[in-house]
Amino acid sequence: MQPDLIAALNSKAHVLLRLQRFEEFIATSDRIKAIDPDNVEAAIILGHFHLLTGNFEAGWIGRKPA
Prior knowledge:
This protein has helices at 6-18, 22-35, 40-52, 56-59. The chain is 67% helix and 0% strand. The model has no long low-confidence stretch (mean pLDDT 89).
């Protein structure tokens, strides 16, 4: 009913990542970014994706130094 509802898209991205359906995950992440470029939850899960797939540099972008 609301295809651009950010909360639903974030949940979908979480599920797709868990299922390792990476192409669909990336498409959903791109959609979230287009709707809400500053979405923190989407940025975190995208970081998890990069870490999971071995792209450590991209996975740690945005991390604040200790």
